[in-house]
């Protein structure tokens, strides 16, 4: 199927009302990607028919001059430039939310593909989709997403308008007071943030070289105000656990060690789980002796505080860019009739 088209298949005899929501990127907070839907089975899958499609390119070029055509950039005779998109749509309360390959965030009717609203700003949304925060009686629900130039954006889930009161009228600059020392270094979000209660948790995508640059810390933001609530330093600083594993000052201003994939949640135990990538510089560890904690680790954090609970390092002193990329999936193992939580 072409990148510019989003198509959904449904069995003609089945009704949308019987389906359940897909509220986060991995379906559930634990990232199992398991769907409980039972309408589509091996017996009826051959009867699936195209119900509708939404052409994300045509939707933004249908009012453009006739000379405009799909291309690799903007300008005379060229259409909007597509980018890679790995968005998994969310479906919540009868509305579908997604980001597109053409720098928009959309709300659609899942039964028909009809557009409810569209958001387009100056900052390109992260390629792996968006997150949903339910709000409360005073605050409408919000769609929250990161961008490829280091912003966190919140829009009203009902209207697609920027959410007032969140940061600077809907926008938070993730670099401000954080990566300012290395203005030219990469700092972006490639995955959707994670929502836990009234916290929006963000990882990041940073450079692979040179060694020094923006940090890969995991951070949490107030879902109402956009205020920074806590920071977990993925390269431990003086006075923090395991800082002594770094020799000399090789930890200082070190980049990498970033959670660029999705972060999962165990709500019952109030814990977050993140896969942390390798430490810079990739493929050359001569200036970072030792274990390189917390590079190439699964880290478990207290969700309310960001405090480290435990870690497991998959590769010591990684010289091969062996990032633990997949979101840590939370599963239960039944052993001798007893359910044991595992991840």
Topology of helices and strands:
Layout: E1 5-11, E2 48-55, H1 58-61, E3 90-92, E4 95-99, E5 105-108, E6 115-119, E7 131-133, E8 142-146, E9 151-156, E10 171-173, E11 187-188, E12 194-196, E13 199-202, E14 205-206, E15 218-222, E16 228-232, E17 264-266, E18 271-276, E19 297-302, E20 308-313, E21 331-335, E22 338-342
Antiparallel strand pairs: 1-2, 3-4, 4-5, 5-6, 7-8, 8-9, 9-10, 11-14, 12-13, 13-15, 15-16, 17-18, 18-19, 19-20, 21-22
Characterize the structure shown.
- This protein is an all-beta fold.
- The radius of gyration is 21 Å and the shape is globular.
- It contains 1 helix and 22 strands.
- The two termini are 34 Å apart.
- It has one helix at residues 58-61, and strands at residues 5-11, 48-55, 90-92, 95-99, 105-108, 115-119, 131-133, 142-146, 151-156, 171-173, 187-188, 194-196, 199-202, 205-206, 218-222, 228-232, 264-266, 271-276, 297-302, 308-313, 331-335, 338-342.
- The strands form 7 sheets. Strands 3-4-5-6 form a 4-stranded antiparallel β-sheet, with no helix packed on it. The protein has a 4-stranded antiparallel β-sheet with strand order 7-8-9-10, with no helix packed on it. A 4-stranded antiparallel β-sheet has the order 12-13-15-16, with no helix packed on it.
- The protein is 1% helix and 29% strand.
- Mean pLDDT is 88; it is low at 7-18 and 63-77.
- A hairpin with a 5-residue loop joins strand 15 and strand 16.
């Amino acid at each position: 199927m072409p990148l510019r088209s989003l198509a959904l298949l449904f069995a003609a005899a089945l009704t949308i009302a019987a389906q359940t929501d897909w509220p986060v990127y991995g379906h559930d907070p634990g990232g199992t990607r398991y769907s409980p839907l039972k309408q589509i089975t091996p017996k009826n899958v051959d009867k699936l028919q195209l119900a509708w499609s939404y052409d994300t390119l045509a939707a933004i070029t249908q009012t453009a001059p006739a000379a405009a055509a799909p291309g690799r950039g903007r300008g005379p005779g060229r259409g909007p430039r597509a980018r890679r998109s790995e968005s998994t749509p969310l479906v919540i309360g009868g509305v579908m939310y997604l980001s597109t390959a053409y720098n928009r965030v959309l709300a659609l009717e899942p039964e028909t593909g009809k557009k409810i609203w569209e958001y387009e700003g100056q900052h390109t949304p992260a390629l792996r989709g968006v997150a949903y925060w339910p709000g409360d009686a005073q605050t409408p629900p919000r769609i929250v997403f990161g961008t490829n130039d280091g912003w966190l954006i919140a829009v009203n889930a009902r209207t697609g308008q920027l959410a007032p009161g969140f940061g600077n009228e809907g926008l938070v600059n993730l670099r401000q007071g954080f990566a300012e020392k290395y203005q030219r270094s990469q700092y972006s979000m490639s995955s959707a943030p994670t929502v836990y209660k009234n916290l929006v948790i963000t990882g990041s995508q940073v450079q692979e070289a040179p060694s020094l640059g923006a940090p890969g810390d995991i951070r949490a933001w107030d879902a109402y105000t956009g205020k920074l609530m806590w920071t977990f330093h993925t390269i431990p600083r003086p006075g923090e656990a395991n800082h002594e594993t770094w020799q000399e000052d090789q930890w200082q201003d070190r980049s990498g060690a970033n959670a660029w994939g999705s972060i999962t949640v165990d709500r019952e135990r109030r814990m977050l789980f993140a896969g942390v990538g390798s430490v810079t510089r990739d493929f050359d560890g001569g200036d970072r002796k030792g274990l390189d904690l917390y590079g190439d680790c699964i880290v478990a954090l207290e969700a309310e505080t960001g405090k480290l609970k435990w870690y497991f390092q998959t590769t010591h002193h990684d010289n091969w860019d062996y990032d633990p990329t997949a979101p840590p999936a939370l599963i239960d193992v039944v052993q001798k009739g007893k359910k044991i939580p595992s991840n």
